[in-house]
Design a protein that fits this description.
cytoplasm; Aldolase_TIM; two-stranded antiparallel ribbon; 11 helices; 10 strands; alpha/beta; transferase; binds pyridoxine-5'-phosphate; 251 residues
Length: 251
Amino acid sequence: MNLSVNLNKISLLRESRGGALPSFYDFAKLALDQNIVGITLHPRPDQRHIIEEDIKTAFELIKQYKKELNIEGNPLENAINNYKGYLTLIKQYKPHQATLVPDSSSQLTSDHGWDISQSKQLIDFATEIRESSNICSIFIDTDITEKELELILNTNINAIELYTGPYAEACLSESKSEIANEISKIRILAESAKEKGLKINAGHDLNTKNLPALRKLDLIDEVSIGHAIICESLSKGFEKTVNEYIDICNG
Ligand code: PXP
């Protein structure tokens, strides 16, 4: 299971004060110095964390390190103020992976996946995106039906990211039955999607406590983790924390 480190929170801290600290360049480099697959950025129209300068920095570093850039965002978000629009950014920076999320612009963080049956437009976006990116992933809830999953087969969507928020919440509740239920949904969907040739990503609210059970499933290709890594870094340091996550991912 590969780890992509989400660096939104580094930029969030910088933007909260203005100026240049913490340095996005330094933390992106430190992350890429570790044995991770790459980094994830989620530029938002309000520019509250990742700004285009960060994408440029990440783009240059990714080339040097020969690792992977994953850019998340809503393809329906067009240019506004200094934000160029998601599709424009993808065409310009050609990340290895583009992850489509259905967030509204004012959302604090992603909290649900696409309603695939209502989102035929997704397939057109994926076709456009695959001209620039090897992988077009869509963020989905773990309770989608087999029929819904089939709607994306034979399209340019070649990966899914499982929204793990409900699983993380079940872990916090410490209810064995809720945890087993969420893990079972993840396993069934991941098995089916893998069989159909899709890459399986997972993310949201993952941490050192809930990650080992996901690793054990041996079905997930990549996790993208931000918030918990940055929180734990405050006491343990960034490099040490990233390496703890890498160790869990390696099983
Ligand atoms: N995946 C998606 C689609 C996200 O929007 C985010 C948050 O930016 C993450 C994963 C990472 O979540 P967390 O910050 O909780 O690790």
